[in-house]
Amino acid sequence: MAAAGYEVWSVDCSLVEPPASAPWLAGQVRAEFSAVHEWWDRCAGADVVIHLASSTVPATASADPVLDVQVNLVGNLRLLQALRDKRTSAGGRPSLLFVSSGGAVYGRPQSVPLAENHPTMPMGAYGVTKLAVEHHLRIEEATHGLAYRVLRLSNPYGEWQRPQGVQGVIAVFAHRALHGLPVDVWGDGSVVRDFVYASDVGRAFVAAARHEGESRVFNVGGGQGYSVNHIIGTLEQLLGHSVERRVLAARPFDPPINVLDIQRAQAELHWRPTVAFEDGVARTLDWLRTLP
Amino acid sequence: MAAAGYEVWSVDCSLVEPPASAPWLAGQVRAEFSAVHEWWDRCAGADVVIHLASSTVPATASADPVLDVQVNLVGNLRLLQALRDKRTSAGGRPSLLFVSSGGAVYGRPQSVPLAENHPTMPMGAYGVTKLAVEHHLRIEEATHGLAYRVLRLSNPYGEWQRPQGVQGVIAVFAHRALHGLPVDVWGDGSVVRDFVYASDVGRAFVAAARHEGESRVFNVGGGQGYSVNHIIGTLEQLLGHSVERRVLAARPFDPPINVLDIQRAQAELHWRPTVAFEDGVARTLDWLRTLP
Known about the structure:
The structure is a homodimer. Chain A is of the alpha/beta class. Chain A folds into two domains: 1-153, Rossmann fold (3-Layer(aba) Sandwich), CATH 3.40.50; 155-195 and 222-292, Alpha-Beta Complex (UDP-galactose 4-epimerase, domain 1), CATH 3.90.25. Chain A contains nine helices and eleven strands. In chain A, the strands form four sheets. Chain A has a four-stranded parallel beta sheet with strand order 3-4-5-9, sandwiched between helices. A three-stranded mixed beta sheet of chain A has the order 6-8-10. A two-stranded parallel sheet of chain A has the order 1-2. In chain A, β4, α4 (125-144) and β5 form a beta-alpha-beta unit. The longest helix of chain A is centred in the first third of the chain and has 25 residues, at 65-89. The radius of gyration of chain A is 19 Å and the shape is globular. Chain A starts with 7 loop residues before the first strand and ends with a helix. The A-B interface holds A 62, 65-66, 69-70, 73-74, 77-78, 81, 117, 119-125, 127-129, 131-132, 135-136, 138-139, 142-143, 253 and B 62, 65-66, 69-70, 73-74, 77-78, 81, 117, 119-125, 127-129, 131-132, 135-136, 138-139, 142-143, 253.
């Protein structure tokens, strides 16, 4: 987004320490996303809010759905109310890009690739909350004129993804493979997922921020699925050595395949992913090598 | 349900004073619906919970969506957790029938009548919360074996509907017409809605409680739509005098028509409405005449 001319601020309840190699960051504010009064003036307001904040991941939302609702759904409702007041005083700014989950809102795919009009039958609390926020955004536009777009991301990966995180199979596998550690595979490794490179996600943000058409919801994915086995094979090829697998029992709640249909984003946002999977994994490895 | 052999208890956060003419009620407990420990033992547990509780109506949910989420969505999550514990100790009981809203979960109809697989695009916070509960019920079945059915009701009417309520156009209009008072009509009275008589709703509860098929969500409606003008005409015919209208500006958020497709309930619950609209309105008037 910085490359496209935006001054990019980060608002987060925890401060990230950006290395010198993060030249895109104009500044950062430590604040809860919903406490707009705490961050609005400190970053001189905003034309576009890219809303990536969540206190949960799918597993933690399922473990405590009440907390997920209280922090994330209620937090989002408070955000919408606060932005309503800001729009009045700031001449219509900001518009809101809400990052939703292409892996969670559809539920078990009835067909792949999953288009935006596939039924939304989430199989976890995380997806229910994401979907409820999407509905409230539509209502907020109809009743109070919020300009918004929803981006249903598949699995973003690439530089800056923490290899010790609870999400992000490519970062975790790449980090472990790089250090000669075994990787955990649930089942036979045939499960297929959709991955989209971080810089392509940033380009989708730019395209969505400038979009003026009728659609409000866009899938943002890599355009193609890759199995867990393919990820490991790609790492082995790039690293030039084999990667040890620790095989665990298949998890029955993992759908065998989840790939997003990105035709709408291609046609209406004029966006398409540009980083090929092998190149993205190679860039991920290069970045991981720079970590202490 | 009493006529079908059930011992019917009422659990409500406010006590109703049932006149002697409510012979179906075995007893009542004053408690919050989600505080299962407060009511379970006092009504000797339950085989089936018919969950009709909500602290909001569509207008109040829109006015304070945060409160709607905190009381109703969080309350429902707590209910599911508490029932999980009860099922363990009570041999699988109870099953849950959740009363959802056929008027709120679909949003603006893309076609009528609205079948259960019509996209769910609620246009108000009330419908978003109802839909989120439906999703959580599906997840609760998949993860913890809850036996449940969702009944998406259209507009129930008939005896026992309070004529001073904020909902229930037939009760309100019938009460006012009976007492020679004018009725409020927003727009030209052409708006069409779906009404289902109270006793037919009770029969749908019985059918859903006994259902063993695959479907989880059923529309429960009158099978046909009636305009506001038709309601007033029916009252005029039954009362033998004209009803004064107070005409107000049409409300832009009122969809012109909302009628539920009830073929699934007919085919799978072997249920269909039995009380014709004119008979239902007549019975409503008869009951209103017994009020002091």
